[in-house]
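1st attempt posting a full record on here, be nice pls
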Amino acid sequence: MKIQPNCKTTKESDIEVMKEKLKIIPLGGLNEIGKNMTVIEYGNDIVVIDCGLAFPDDDMLGVDLVIPDTTYLKRNQKKVRGYLITHGHEDHIGAIPYVLREVNAPIYATRLTCGIIQTKLAEHRMPEKVRMNTVKAGDVIKLGCFTIEFIHTNHSIADSVALAIRTPLGTIIHTGDFKVDLTPVSGEMIDLARFGELGREGVLALMSDSTNVERSGYTPSEKVVGQSLENFFKNCDQRIIIATFASNVSRLQQILDIAARFGRKVAVCGRSMEKITQVAQELGYLHDDGKVLIDVSTINRYPQNRLCIVSTGSQGETMSALYRMAYSSHKQVEVVTGDRILIAASAIPGNEKSVSNMVNELYRKGAEVIYDRNAAIHVSGHACQEEQKLMIGLCKPKYFIPVHGEHRMLQKHAALAEEMGVDPRNVIITEIGRPIEIDDRSARLCPMVPAGRVLIDGLGIGDVGAAVLRDRKHLAEDGLLVVVVTIDKESGVVIAGPDIVSRGFIYVREAEDLMEELRVQSQMALDRCLDEGVRDWNGIKSALKSALSNYLFKKTKRSPMILPIIMEV
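the predicted structure (as tokens):
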């Protein structure tokens, strides 16, 4: 697939272009897990690599999702030539429906990735048409002054690619998320030969996935999971429930094949699992040769020992299928004594507690739960140290830029690159919003551009900020006291109240003495305002807050949020 360049082609314009500097601007994915997004800019052209989301931290109360701040892209919207998507995981595509409302540009991705994106866009009912372009490994496209080649890689989702981006200053390779799987369940092993060829031609900069850099050795093949799962099917006379990532089509394919051999039917459960299964079947990435797939609504027609349910919820997400089964709120599946439940995933950092709580609930219901890493029912989709060394050795980059990981991972990856012979002066660790500027002589870090995170809460995009989160945290920790007072507009005399309402602070019926004392303190504060001639609402509210805060801290060592409400008649 070839697309004509948008840049000028005259000799004068070529000279003008060569004066420009190449900028690599991370808008997400550094010093964090998820929210991956990187801008490559040269002159009047910008391409964007990935557009992902992250899940909220524990202190982001009520927040659903976190996406990158794209202020820089909005300011340079006319330069944006397209989005280059490496694969279909949420941390690489999840922000697309939100970002494209602000900066709409063509998307270039492989078939399965396009299918997942289109399903996501349909859910969000995009107001504008999105220009989707399907590519495959080996394709070369031109966007502005960039020439982009898509290179086949292995990951925990099919159709993953790396990117070789040719710029006027040289070639940048972005590995995307990758591993070296010599025996993949479907498709071919990663195209190491092409990385080697590019390395011989000369690579200006390598941007490489750092997620698994703390693990030595090699990441096991996905086929190892299939062998382990088969052992759990053998001699099992109970229902089997497997929780895994919805996007891992290769794992689902292995489960279908194993279930067919053991005479079981398979039902997929969970909204994302059902959607991706449908897309993968339609596009030919998932084959039900044994005719074992059934609708989850029909599971009661089959004996328990002839069923396998593949479910979302491996991370203990509160709305996921397995979580709802654990807490008896799933409409179609009820966990019963003897169920064999396999959690075929490792907990993402931050999710350990929710996974642990869910596992405890499953045990209470009498289920057998297998979630130990030693059971070999999950392998990572990310490269370990030896594979990362191999990538660096093949590409032989002038500059090395670790991406996709927390800061300790980036540092560890940087040390690995130096070990592989990259000049320490050319190993660059940056942060979100800090561009790397490269010219024909050197590379340097530049001043920050607008970047950060945008919080999604329900239908609200970016309307929850630091102040709102502080209030939510305050309410969650200390509760709320509402003081209601009615004042005569002319005289300033209190006509009704003060009435005290407590929410999340104390149980009123068990603290009537304290509530009465709070009313007394409020009345005293109002009397002082009247004596001192304080008539404006802000002054009265401030006096009430101060009086009650001081009194409560002395009496209870607690500081609830205090909300005075003044009414005039």
